[in-house]
Specification:
The complex is a heterohexamer, with two copies of chain A, two copies of chain B, one copy of chain C and one copy of chain D. By secondary structure, chain A is an alpha/beta fold. Chain A has six helices and nine strands. In chain A, strand 1 and strand 2 form a beta hairpin. In chain A, helix 3 crosses helix 5 and helix 4 packs across helix 5. Chain A is globular. In chain B, about 85% of the residues lie in helices and about 0% in strands. Chain B is mostly helical. Chain C is mainly alpha-helical. The chains are: A alpha/beta, B mainly alpha, C mainly alpha, D mainly alpha. At the A-D interface, loops of A face helix 2 of D. Bound molecules: protoporphyrin IX containing FE (HEM), adenosine-5'-triphosphate (2 copies) and magnesium ion (2 copies).
Chain lengths: ~210, ~220, ~240, ~60, ~220, ~210
């Protein structure tokens, strides 16, 4: 499904990785590992096409994501470090405007159910700025659930989530895998997943070819 | 695709309407800056009249300039811009939606209030009408060109004044033709030339600026 | 004394205590205002210089005075709110702003309507006019800040601080602009010299001024009651009150 | 003095009556706006009460 | 305490010097806005001269206004302001340090470049000298009062234009006296009255504004 | 040392807690627990004096922190959700400017040692904007170590830290306790501390008096 071909990433003057290749197929879960600053976020942003790699390319169903952008983005959803929450919109409107970017016009009731599932019942009308850090992240979980994407790319999805939140995230990933979807994620806080998991480790390399 | 346009347009409008006061802000800024001049210059009614078109146009330009960071900055900082760029819809359409919203929220109110200020500064009626036309044609261009500037500086830390440095030179032709149209109308001469120019620039920038903006976004927002 | 102030200024107490006050102020404003209007429109003689147009005075001047008076009240109660932490004072300040703004607006518009026949222009950049315009902007700034800050307590204190800072500005604006104007243009503006006003004009003018003040007192209390309800919306007394409605 | 003379205001009718009209408008607005405000506040509080009740019910349901 | 003042002052200066271009920005904005007017108004040399003091002062004021969010906004958003408020040193001192840095980076450059613009707009020499004095006394007041406004709006989402609504009315006396001083000097009359007034306002605001600012910060930055 | 007396906190329309009292004395570690949105961050900010409680007060060595601000702030350091990192300053300058707020003028070599301890050796001259999320948090750890404060107030200090980072944080807390200092912290990700620990749990309550 997704294939990374000998990616190389340089930030500032540091070579983070080079010749990095891997692929993710249907119903596969993959963790990107590495210590702080090893380049996980950079890698994920390259996979998304938000950043150009110094070398190599990312393929989606056999085609480069550059030439294939539309179909790739229809099937992929990315959740990064940043919360994407508009302070002035309500929780419901926030989810809706995230879905709008994917041209998904869902009924209110569906969104409300999703919000309930992520523990934001009765918060529909609260404005974004009045949310705690964990509640902000939970909005993203609702979005993820509703986004109808095959490939999830998650950068530290457990940030700020409490114990129930972590459980929820885990079961969401398992369900998604069950349904044939694939997940690429990073996390420093042990995610307990009852399934096979592949992993890519980013370490230190020093020279650029 | 059209749907994507409307969704985003409405989101931005809703976001602005959420804070009513914010909606009024560029307007109030405009009015305040225009009023600063008579206060600072101690004019006779005649000098006031000569100054009026220039002052109003410069103030409108500054009001638009200041409201530009409404366009992408916030979206960049909270990560929403990433999501927009990951949308399956063409980025150009989304940019166009955001610019439309920006103009509806900034340019249009200015066009509406400007006649009042023109009368305050003792402009004759014909000049006021030309003022309206020139602003109607000119302010969308300000938003469109502004979008290019904002997208170029979106990743710059405190880009506010850098932005003006980039954009003001591009605004100058609009300013000159816009203010000149009013000047000429005040003198009772025909203004179709100036207005035609503004119209042509508008057509040109509607077709090219969103493209440039979306290219710029893909480059600058890579983090 | 302190204790008494604290007790009376509790929003709950204020909410019930203010009802009769509102009634009396309303009745007073209505009676005095109607009488003042009658005297002003029908009894007061025609001005030999300005003709009938001077009758705008009975609106314009009380409105202008009101706008200044309300600002002072607003700033004073904001100060009380900040220094002694009396929440009722914050509510009065917040309730005053829209009223003051509306009267500043009225003074501006009636003034400029009066200016057209008198000076031949709706607007000139004169001392009084400018300072009144700035006063309107101060009100608008207060209201904008009040509504922009989400947390109610910080909104009250922050906009209160702004109101207080604005007070320093009022005399400055007033005198500065006058100075600035007289230096250059001389008095292009027709101004009444204070004492020479006919008693038959003065009386309705003063009556209207009093009526305006009473009207303000009534409205500010009504508004402050709303503010009290809103600010205490999570307290028991409001919940009980709402459930009875 | 007859009425039409009165309404004519010595030729200043437009200025005088617009002023008085605006005066009435401002007074009326000042009376109406706190009434609307009150309605809004009350409905806001009622809504929060309802929302809290629903929220509590849901929470009880979950646990 | 004095040490705390210097530390913070130098941090802010260093931060600004890190981005050279940013340092130049208010200046460039100032110059650009001043040059916009002759472009928009098509003036005779005499009208240009009458306009000059007002235009220069208004532009200086706008340049300061636009650079104000440099004062606390960034610090608020990245949490540094919390750390400042948790400092054992009096907040007033820290505010004063930040305002000083702001003036050194914004006001002072304007004062230095203004004479050039004055000459450019054909002001006579005496008027230029008064222009320098008036800006020298006036711009610190703009920074000081601006600090109050910024601290009041620091928690407001897109406070940019709200800020101008709040601050411009407070700036108007400075503007009037500053521009008027130059006007009067141009007419060859004595200007000590206006300059004394500006000096008095400066003294007043140096002693009161930092206090008001720190009170405001404690109020608004509570999150 | 620190005493919270019947604190009450209301946000928007929600009463988060009321009548909350506890105290922390020397060499004590206390965890504030509670699910997302229960008011942990709000509580910590009240304890710091950054927020006014609706009722109640916070005492430092027997005096209210309002009247006692200077001595309290000399002995306390707070690290919140936000990174306090200036994008344009280098790592070293960032630490230094944080220390400046406490009027601590330490030698460069001391700061560099601290940076080495938190795993930022060789990053002294890198600008803030070029750091990964975990590296940003590590700057705060260096600051914490150098701040010479008796009381640490930490809001989710483990955010974005990798496994070594978490270990480091844990050992820093233990050392601090050993030296007689006290710590109040929140975290959703199990912090393994080999010491006694008290905890305050924030739950749900509904009416305000
Ligand atoms: C837009 C135009 C005008 C504005 C904004 C305006 C504003 C004001 C203000 C603020 C005051 C109160 C001054 C104070 O008590 O310190 C005032 C008073 C007054 N205005 Fe006007 N005015 C305007 C036009 C006029 C005109 C055209 C006239 C008549 C020719 C007029 C006549 C008066 C008189 C007689 C007073 C009472 C003076 C006093 O207190 O001794 N105004 N006006
Ligand atoms: N600025 C705000 N305005 C109004 N309400 C707010 C604001 N910030 C937070 N809240 C509300 O206060 C409650 C507590 O927020 P707080 O940030 O203290 O929670 P928390 O316990 O730190 O949660 P988390 O574990 O998610 O960080 C939340 O329910 C939230 O909705
Ligand atoms: N904007 C940037 N400019 C230059 N270098 C950067 C930038 N952002 C990050 N870096 C560098 O790139 C490297 C990798 O950063 P990245 O954010 O990808 O790390 P990460 O693996 O996600 O770390 P973490 O676990 O802390 O989130 C870091 O060493 C950092 O110094
Ligand atoms: Mg990362
Ligand atoms: Mg929290």
């Amino acid at each position: 499904m997704l294939e990374a071909q000998s990616l190389e990433c340089v930030r500032d003057d540091r070579l983070l990785f080079s010749g990095l290749s891997f692929s993710v197929s249907d119903a596969e879960v993959m963790q990107i590992e590495g210590h702080n600053g090893s380049g996980k976020t950079s890698l994920l942003r390259i996979i998304c096409g938000l950043r150009q790699p110094e070398a190599g390319q990312v393929m989606w169903q056999g085609e480069s994501i550059k030439s294939n952008r539309e179909s790739y983005y229809e099937n992929m959803v990315y959740i990064g470090h940043l919360p994407c929450i508009k302070a002035d919109l309500t929780v419901l409107e926030n989810v809706r405007s995230l879905l709008d970017t994917r041209s998904l016009a869902l009924a209110n009731s569906i969104i409300e159910t999703a919000l309930e599932n992520v523990g934001l019942a009765s918060y529909e009308d609260v404005q974004g700025k009045a949310l705690s850090s964990g509640q902000r992240r939970r909005i993203l979980l609702a979005f993820l659930e509703l986004a109808q994407a095959k490939l999830w790319i998650l950068d530290e999805p457990l940030t700020a989530l409490d114990v129930q939140g972590v459980d929820l995230m885990e079961s969401m990933i398992l369900d998604h895998r069950q349904a044939g979807g694939s997940v690429i994620f990073t996390t420093h806080h042990g995610m307990q997943l009852d399934c096979e998991m592949r992993s890519v480790h980013l370490g230190h390399s020093n020279y650029q070819e | 695709m059209l749907k994507a346009y409307y969704y985003l347009l409405f989101r931005d409008l809703r976001l602005a309407l959420r804070n009513r006061h914010e909606l009024a802000n560029p307007l109030i800024f405009f009015v305040l800056v225009v009023t600063l001049f008579p206060l600072a210059v101690t004019p006779t009614p005649e000098t006031l009249q000569t100054m009026a078109p220039g002052v109003i146009w410069v103030s409108a330009l500054l009001a638009v300039l200041l409201s530009l960071d409404r366009l992408f900055k916030q979206d960049y900082e909270d990560g929403s811009l990433d999501q927009l760029m990951l949308s399956p819809n063409p980025l150009v359409i989304l940019v166009l939606a955001k610019v439309t919203a920006h103009w509806l929220l900034t340019g249009l109110p200015l066009v509406i209030i400007a006649p009042l200020l023109g009368l305050f500064m003792s402009l004759p009626m014909e000049a006021v009408i030309v003022l309206i036309y020139s602003l109607l044609l000119g302010t969308p261009v300000l938003s469109l060109i502004g979008a290019i500037g904002v997208s170029l500086t979106v990743a710059v830390n405190r880009g506010g004044v850098l932005l003006s440095l980039i954009i003001l030179p591009l605004y100058i032709p609009i300013l000159i033709f816009g203010a000149n149209a009013v000047d000429v109308a005040m003198a009772g001469l025909p203004v179709s030339g100036q207005l035609l120019f503004l119209g042509a620039v508008l057509a040109l920038s509607v077709s090219l600026a969103p493209l440039a903006t979306s290219v710029a976004l893909r480059i600058t927002a890579s983090r | 004394m302190w204790h008494w102030i604290q007790r009376f200024s509790s929003p709950k107490h204020f909410y019930t205590m203010s009802v009769p006050l509102i009634k009396w102020f309303t009745v007073g404003a209505l009676l005095i205002g109607l009488y003042g209007l009658y005297l002003g429109l029908f009894v007061a003689p025609t001005d030999y210089q300005q003709g009938e147009s001077y009758r705008i005075i009975f609106i314009h001047v009380p409105a202008a005075w009101m706008s200044l008076f309300v600002y002072m009240v607003m700033a004073a109660s904001a100060g009380i709110g900040i220094i002694w932490q009396i929440r009722l004072a914050d509510m009065v300040a917040a309730a005053s702003a829209p009223i003051g703004a509306s009267f500043a607006f009225l003074a501006l518009v009636t003034g400029s309507l009066w200016g057209k026949p008198m000076w031949g222009a709706y607007w000139v950049w004169d001392a009084r006019l400018t300072s009144e315009l700035i006063l309107l902007f101060l009100y608008l700034g207060y209201m904008a800040l009040q509504s922009a800050i989400e947390d109610q307590r910080s909104a009250d204190k922050a906009s209160g601080l702004l109101a207080i800072v604005g007070v320093v500005n009022i005399p400055i604006i007033h005198y500065s602009v006058e100075w600035w104007n007289t230096l250059h243009q001389g008095a292009t503006v027709t101004k009444f010299d204070k004492p020479s006003i006919h008693v038959d004009m003065l009386i309705p003018l003063l009556l209207m001024a009093v009526a305006f003040k009473l009207f303000y007192a009534a409205i500010v209390l009504i508004r402050a009651r709303n503010e009290a309800l809103y600010r205490d919306r999570n307290r028991r007394w409001v919940r009980e009150l709402i459930e009875q409605l | 003095m007859n009425w039409s003379e009165f309404f004519n205001m010595g030729g200043y009718a437009f200025y005088v009556w617009t002023s008085y009209g605006l005066f009435i408008l401002v007074i009326v607005a000042n009376i109406i706006s706190p009434m609307m405000q009150r309605k809004k506040v009350i409905s806001h509080i009622k809504r929060t009460i309802r929302r809290e009740n629903i929220g509590q019910a849901k929470r009880r349901h979950q646990s």
